Amino acid sequence: MSIDLIIFDLDGTIVDSCEDITVAINFCLRKYGMLEFTQEEVKKMIGEGVRKFVEKVIHIRNLSHDLLNDIFDCFVSYYSNHVAVFT
């Protein structure tokens, strides 16, 4: 029997990147003088993609929706350069 396809769930199953995600979003929030999140708070918001995650951050912190793209870009940039510091 040959194997044609293998599917696995990496993030949150094989590795836990929550600490790196928390550090990245808090870096961006500090730039705007905003209150940071704990890892437990972040863990409850992740799992639906980066855009949805940042939308939740904006909503929970009651930030202006105008900041969405800036915080999204900040997060993607920071996280891309620090993707596996704690993971």
Q: What does it look like?
A:
The protein has 87 residues and is mostly helical. It has a single domain, classed as Putative phosphatase, domain 2 (DNA polymerase, domain 1, Orthogonal Bundle), CATH 1.10.150. Helix content is 53%, strand content 0%. The chain contains four helices and no strands. The chain has helices spanning 18-31, 39-45, 50-60, 68-81. Helix 1 crosses helix 4 and helix 3 (50-60) packs across helix 4 (68-81). The longest helix has 14 residues, at 18-31. The N and C termini lie far apart (35 Å). The mean pLDDT is 93.
Overall, the morphology is elongated
Oligomeric composition of the shown chains: single chain
- Our measurement of the CA-to-CA distance between the termini, rounded to an integer number of angstroms, reads 35 Å
CATH architecture, by name, is Orthogonal Bundle
Number of helices: 4
Rounded radius of gyration (Å): 15 Å
N-to-C SSE string, H for helix and E for strand: HHHH
Structural class: mainly alpha
Number of strands: 0
CATH topology description: DNA polymerase, domain 1
The major beta sheet can be summarized as: none
- The CATH class assignment is Mainly Alpha
Give the helix/strand layout:
Elements: H1 18-31, H2 39-45, H3 50-60, H4 68-81
